């Protein structure tokens, strides 16, 4: 749902304790009406309403803002403001963002477009916007204090430049950066090529998302912004699994995924069942001679990676950060490792005092996905997400790529879980246990295929390799 009425939208979006700066109605009237978004759902791609055609991107759990044409200039209006972001159902966070959401809306333009962006500051402190990766006049680069004065609360600044090269970019503040990005201020910028390019393939599906991390204590609603390393909420576009929309593709579609990293650490983004190539970065398209196949690409802080592959394997394939802590949900930092510790008898003793007491992690941590632990209000389980075969034991930076034989060209709906062909799912072995007479691999050092047990001190004196 997009609300085009700024004042109505802002009135409902600003529900935090932070008082937003007042912005004059008269001053706003001449500006492009800022679109606002209240939903964290993935919006349908915005087919370009006028100007040159292109294949629009799908922003995971996000949206693309419309523009208005003004004497040949594409005009946008971003409003920096406090927002409430639904990170997962039942877990909303007080963030700062743009136009009702964190991340802000995706901006999509075409190479060569002259672009004018009005930025209105409704935050309680000053801000700026830096257009990460763009070629532009120095004074449009958005570094508060260096290339421009800060945008004070209540003020609107104008940025104007030509989108000179195609690619995947980001925008974020260059003012009180640590706090403002820790609060969710960021967005994607896509510049589509103006003509066919030998380095830019036509794709059937084009997905985009940003990596962001927050430190929200379980039960709290506002991130700690002075955090340096101990973030506990790991997100794709300020959203955690299983609340992240799956990527879908029709079999043999060429798929592009654009990922940008505005967290404080790197994220190795990993795909299952396919190999991709990095076809571009925020520096532009990668020369074909410099591409190689990968199944994981590390996205360092402040980088963008654009990967492409043919989605030719049917199924529900995991797509996730390979740092295992980053596919977990909210957790305190004080959970000791309990694997291998024998607690038998201890729990029943404690339960005499604390009836609800449960022991975590004695046999690994996997049980936590199915344990019904009482949670504080406004958080989500550390590992959650249920698949067709049970708990996925995942939260955070994880989603799925769903490849289907039948799918409409513009159909981005979740097709449900994959229906596996007969005899293609790993199964439990329930046959006869392997006995002494069953075929065995020959252990190294034995001369025959017969099972042999080597006793200490009876080395045969030679090794045989089979
Ligand atoms: Cu990660």
Automatic annotation (TrEMBL):
Which of UniProt's keywords are assigned here?
A: Metal-binding, Oxidoreductase, Signal
| UniProt xrefs under Gene3D superfamilies | Cupredoxins - blue copper proteins (2.60.40.420)
Higher taxonomy: Bacteria, Pseudomonadati, Pseudomonadota, Betaproteobacteria, Burkholderiales
Q: Where is this region: Disordered?
A: 432-466
- Originating species: Diaphorobacter ruginosibacter
Where in the cell is the protein located? Periplasm
Q: Out of the domains of life, which is the source?
A: Bacteria
This protein is called Copper oxidase
So which residues are the signal peptide here? 1-29
A GO term for molecular function: oxidoreductase activity
Q: What is its main location?
A: periplasm
Gene Ontology cellular component annotations, sorted alphabetically: periplasmic space
Q: Which residues form the Plastocyanin-like domain?
A: 92-195, 223-335
Per the UniProt record, one Pfam family is Cu-oxidase_3
- Feature: compositional bias, Basic and acidic residues: 456-466
């Amino acid at each position: 749902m997009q609300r085009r009425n700024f004042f109505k939208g802002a009135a409902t979006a600003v529900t935090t304790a932070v008082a937003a700066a007042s912005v004059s109605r008269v001053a706003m009237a001449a500006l492009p009406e800022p679109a606002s978004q209240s939903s964290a759902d993935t919006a349908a791609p915005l087919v370009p309403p006028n100007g040159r055609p292109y294949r629009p991107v799908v922003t995971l759990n996000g949206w693309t803002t419309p523009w208005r044409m003004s004497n040949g200039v594409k005009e946008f209006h971003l409003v920096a403001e406090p927002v409430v972001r639904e990170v997962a159902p039942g877990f909303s966070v007080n963030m700062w963002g743009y136009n009702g959401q964190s991340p802000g809306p995706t901006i999509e333009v075409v190479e060569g477009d002259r672009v004018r962006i009005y930025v209105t500051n409704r935050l309680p402190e000053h801000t700026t916007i830096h257009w990460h990766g763009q070629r532009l006049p120095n004074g449009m680069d958005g570094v508060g204090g260096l290339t421009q004065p800060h945008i004070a609360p209540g003020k609107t600044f104008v940025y104007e430049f030509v989108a000179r090269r195609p690619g995947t970019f980001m925008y974020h503040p260059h003012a009180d950066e640590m706090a403002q990005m820790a609060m969710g201020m960021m967005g994607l910028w896509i510049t589509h090529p103006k003509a066919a390019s030998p380095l830019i393939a036509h794709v059937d599906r084009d997905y985009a998302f940003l990596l962001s991390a927050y430190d929200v204590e379980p039960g709290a609603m506002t991130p700690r912004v002075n955090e340096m390393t101990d973030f506990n909420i790991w997100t794709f576009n300020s959203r955690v699994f299983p609340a992240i929309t799956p990527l879908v593709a029709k079999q043999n579609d060429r798929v592009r995924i654009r990922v940008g990293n505005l967290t404080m650490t790197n994220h190795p983004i990993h795909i299952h069942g396919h190999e991709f190539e990095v076809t571009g970065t925020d520096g532009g398209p990668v020369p074909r001679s410099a591409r190689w196949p990968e199944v994981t690409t590390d996205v360092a802080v402040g980088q963008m990676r654009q990967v492409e592959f043919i989605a030719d394997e049917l199924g529900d394939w995991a797509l996730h950060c390979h740092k295992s802590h980053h596919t977990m949900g909210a957790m305190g930092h004080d959970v000791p490792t309990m694997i291998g510790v024998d607690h038998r008898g201890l729990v029943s003793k404690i339960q005499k005092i604390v009836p609800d007491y449960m022991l975590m992690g004695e046999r690994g941590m996997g049980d936590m996905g199915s344990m019904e632990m009482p949670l504080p209000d406004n958080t989500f389980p550390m590992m959650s997400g249920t698949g067709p075969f049970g708990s996925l034991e995942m939260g955070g930076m994880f989603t799925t790529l769903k490849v289907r034989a039948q799918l409409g060209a513009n159909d981005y709906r979740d097709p449900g879980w994959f229906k596996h062909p007969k005899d293609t799912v790993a199964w439990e072995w329930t046959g006869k246990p392997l006995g002494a007479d069953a075929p065995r691999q020959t252990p190294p050092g034995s001369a025959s295929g017969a099972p042999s047990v080597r006793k200490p001190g009876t080395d045969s004196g030679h090794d045989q390799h089979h």
